[in-house]
Write a structure and sequence with these properties.
- The chain has eleven helices and nine strands.
- The chain is an alpha/beta fold.
- Helix 3 packs across helix 5.
- The chain is globular.
């Protein structure tokens, strides 16, 4: 196991944004538009406001429909890597191998168009200050859905890519790392529990909520300002309040259980 204390710490940080057109719950959401800009462009704009990220790359699939993602990335000057559709862990690993100067990897998903760069940088700070293998704000969910940030070492990702066997661990990039007790992990908690708020886009109801906050807030606003806006408009907040958080991961875990316990 390659734990933090054994590593030669380097500070080049690569953000890999996971995005594809083939969402089962809301197909094509990555390039859906609000005010003439795609959700992926909003996400990129917010991530670029981070003060600690050195490079951004979008990781999409080799499916024909994701040629549109590649073309979009070309149009906005962002690197795009295309990898296996189902094995997302391998997609991340193969992507990061192209950027060998970067020893610290950040995972962000393209369905988080209003992700807060201040939260991104806070998770990065925790990662380095505590010399962790893995840091996030999702081990204990206190931030709104849509503020998810995961930071991990390239070495941890390499081990996961080589050793992860479960379908859930191949589909959800960091699950192997999170499951291994020998990795040194840390979680950033919000000042109080905001997990009931959804600022991600998995369903059509989510799109309506995100569209509202984007159209009614400044581009560089914080997640707390989005929450204040939603609290002033409970009819908007309620639109997606019943959507289950991490539904995709829960389905993957249940599928693994059925395979392991037929």
């Amino acid at each position: 196991m390659l734990c933090a204390k054994k590593l030669n710490w380097r500070y080049m940080i690569l953000a890999v944004i996971q995005a594809r057109m083939g969402s089962t719950r809301l197909p094509g959401k990555t390039l859906m538009k609000i005010g003439g800009k795609t959700l992926l462009e909003y996400c990129l704009t917010r991530v670029r406001l981070s003060k600690k990220i050195d490079k951004i790359v979008v990781a999409t699939t080799t499916n024909s429909e994701d040629k549109a993602v590649e073309k979009f990335c070309e149009s906005v000057g962002v690197d795009c890597f295309r990898g296996l559709p189902e094995d997302v862990l391998d997609r991340y690993w193969q992507c990061t191998k192209r950027y060998s100067d970067y020893q610290t990897i950040i995972r962000i998903t393209g369905d988080c168009p209003v992700i807060d760069p201040v939260v991104i940088d806070a998770v990065i700070e925790k990662f380095f200050n505590e010399k962790l293998d893995y840091a996030s704000n999702v081990l204990e969910e206190t931030f709104p859905d849509g503020m998810d940030v995961e930071v991990f070492t390239l070495e941890a990702l390499a081990e996961a890519a080589q050793k992860a066997k479960l379908g859930s661990e191949r589909e959800h990039v960091t699950l192997y790392i999170r499951n291994q007790p020998d990795f040194k992990k840390g979680n950033l908690a919000a000042d109080k529990d905001y997990s009931q708020f959804r600022l991600t886009v998995d369903q059509s109801e989510d799109f309506e909520v995100v569209k509202f906050v984007i159209e009614n807030a400044k581009p560089d606003t914080s997640y707390k300002d989005y929450i204040k806006l939603l609290l002033k408009h409970p009819e908007i907040f309620k639109k997606n309040s019943n959507v289950v958080r991490n539904e995709g991961m829960k389905k993957s875990l249940n599928k693994d259980k059925k395979l392991l316990n037929p």
